[in-house]
Amino acid sequence: MSTLLEVRGLVKRFGGLVATDHLNLDVRSGEIHALIGPNGAGKTTVINQLFGDFAPDEGDITFDGASLLGLPTPARVQRGLGRTFQITRLLPDFTALEHLLLAVQAHQGHCFRFFRPARSDPRLLSPAREALARVDLADRADIKVSALSHGERKELELAIALALHPKLLLLDEPMAGLGASETEGMVRLLESLRGEVTMLLVEHDMDAVFALADRITVLVYGKAIASGTSDEIQANPEVKIAYLGEGDA
Amino acid sequence: MTRQNVSIVLIVVLGALLLAVPALAAALGNPALVGLATRVLIYAIAAASLNLVLGYGGMVSFGHAAFLGVGGYVVGILFHHFRFSEPLFGVIAGSDQLLVVLPAAVLITGILAAGIGALALRTSGVQFIMITLAFAQMLYFFFIALKTYGGDDGLVIRRRSALFDLDMRDDRTFFYVVLGFAVTFFAIYATVIRSRFGLLLGAIRQNESRVAAVGIAPYRYKLAAFVISGMGAGLAGALLANYQRFVSPDMLHWTKSGELMMMVILGGAGTLFGPLFGAAALISLETYLTQWTERWMLILGPVLILIVLFMRGGIAGLIDQLLRRLK
Amino acid sequence: MTVFVLEQLLNGLQLGVTLFLLAAGLTLIFGIMGIINLAHGSLYMIGAYAAALVARETGSWLLAVPAGLLAAGAAGMLIEMVIMRRLYDRDHLDQVLATYGLILFCNELVTLLVGRQPMFVGIPPGLAGAIELIPGVPYSIYRLSIIGFGLALAVGLYLLIQKTRLGMLIRAGATNRDTVRALGVDIRLLYTLVFGLGALLAGFAGIMMGPLLSVQVGMGEQILIMTFVVVVVGGVGSIRGAFFGAIIVGIVDTMLRGFMPGWMRGIISDTAQADALSAGLSSMGVYLLMALVLLFRPQGLFPART
């Protein structure tokens, strides 16, 4: 299996705090790779550096054979990086469908089209509706985001990311704040995407992580202390002490 | 009746009313009504242009009067050179033809907006408000300094620009010409808003980082909106200069930018016809309050404050609520 | 030539400290309450008018100054309680428009009460005349005292903000509103006080400028826009930025006005044209400065620490 994402010697400091400490990380094509660690381990910081929200101080990020360093977020998305946000970033005045129309038109290329109405364009509508159906939101298409439940917003974020047909999907705590049945639904949804899209999953819900992840990297204080399959990680004594032993955060 | 049908009925009624303005004015024995309606239409074009960046794109430009004024000055300056038959910079001949001066005004304000926008859009928030104001003030003082074209006193345009063989001196004819431009403008404006570009602009207003996360860099789209907006305001300025047969630095004054913003908010920011309603309301208010009392600002000021504080969504929002209740 | 330069420098400094008094209030109000207040110039006008009226009626500056301060401060607090309070959670657009409405109202109200004629007030008798700074170079005592008062107030403001409990709250409020709320401070009262303080400073600037300019409707807006330039050049929300920004803007503006006509007359033979052109170009100068600063240092030259 080829390596899709290769992180080497990544360092990010905030003042005196080292948030990412010489991190190495490999995500292989087609796998679901979980990034776990206690609160404050710097998981979102890693995602943010991958996505281009801020630049690392040292190290390199290679994605699909080319370095991502110096590229702004939109360029990274165009190269095949997708993301969901821990705290959903949606557009309050838009309906669920309008979010997908936006994503589909972004995926189709430039948006300098001034004349054909967007909301009735079948070339936008059918992929948009398809993506909504994929996350089971087809019947919520015309509901404004402000009227959607927390779980539905998380699903909408995922649908937007999927509509961009990413090679690698960065999932920042997709289960956070979900109820038991919603979590189950999200796990099933991600499971259904296995093989179709590579995923880097940051998640606190260990049951979900062990159910989904092909491989797991454990992050503590910005450092990767272990990397391996679920079984290897569960058996790793260092991980038990540093992380699992401290109880579920 | 569906909402769409209601909107169509409203547009038809509005259109019929506008077509009938000169007849109505004659019937009411109030010929000044024609001029009032002309000014409303011209300002509606300017306010709608501002609405594209302010209401749809969320860019609070506090300098749009600059484009209005420059559009007007293009007409004035070209006429000036036409009248004295001396080409501008020795090469550009003047003109009194509407179909020459209007495109020229739109082109030049477009170029100007591209320059100002390219720089100003590197900032956001308060800084954007202030930098657009700063550029407008620079142009305001620039025209004051231009003694060749009247400086402080402004520039008189002796005749309205010619269009075919129409008698442009007749206010009714001129009204219909402006109406034609306004209808064309609003048709294009409505199309742009509903297009992919318009959808994206709405998304940019709400959250730029969301837009970046779907792979779109907002800057050039914001710039495009700013340029279109500047061109629209330039068109309005060119028509206004023709209507009043006069341009002066006052057209670029920052209070003029404030008035345009007021029209947008009063009518309803981010709505199709809001700017038209806003322009109609503000200009009528101004005209009738002035007749009633010289101190009309004493009323307009508090009215504006009350609208901002308590009437969110403006007139268009109010109409929308009424329609909802009717259903 | 050097004499002229010195004189222009002092004039620039005098304009600078005046701008600072306005900018300090404006930037504080923006930093703490997040409000863009276009009506700040109206408070300056109110201060100038109240002082000019009292000076004209009583002939006493000892009464005129407190009257101006009282009028500006009271107007500021009233505006805060009636209007501004409702704008804190609104976006900048709403704030710009509501305070724009306030300008229209204030200008018209003053016209209604006092009339449209500009008022001219004399320089307070004790401060009239000129003093020789260097032998042979007389300079207006009044302008010098404005510089003195302005600098003294700048120091006072610095001490207030750095050394007092109110100042501590203001500093905390500028960077983190929630912290101040968490301290159990009556945030509404704090806001009213800050607004009142800004109004007092603006009013004082108006009082001092009265004898130098004519007191008239619209004087507020002229200086308001320049004050915005100062705030943006210095860094929005930063008092230190307001001070240095004000001095820079004051000196740049005065110097351009002082030297531009000479340069222009050197280039253009027609004197009237040269003067008109230089008046326009020198007015453009500070806006050009602001645009340049924003392009290269979007947060201003002395950004507020966060």
Short description:
The complex is a heterotrimer of chains A (249), B (327) and C (306). Chain A is of the alpha/beta class. Helices cover 35% and strands 25% of the residues of chain A.
Q: Would you write up a description of this structure?
A:
The complex is a heterotrimer of chains A (249), B (327) and C (306). With 249 residues, chain A is α/β, with parallel strands linked by helices. Chain A has 2 domains: 1-80 and 167-249, Rossmann fold (3-Layer(aba) Sandwich); 89-165, no CATH class. Chain A is built from 9 helices and 10 strands. Helix content of chain B is 73%, strand content 1%. The model of chain B has no long low-confidence stretch (mean pLDDT 87). Chain B has a two-stranded antiparallel ribbon with strand order 1-2. Chain B has helices spanning 3-19, 21-27, 32-56, 65-83, 98-120, 125-145, 171-194, 196-206, 208-213, 219-244, 254-267, 274-292, 297-310, 314-326, and strands at 155-156, 246-247. In chain B, helix 2 packs antiparallel against helix 3. Chain C has 306 residues and is mainly α. In chain C, helix 1 (2-33) packs across helix 6 (165-175), helix 1 (2-33) crosses helix 9 and helix 2 (40-58) crosses helix 9. The longest helix of chain C has 32 residues, at 2-33. The interface between B and C is large, with 46 and 48 residues.
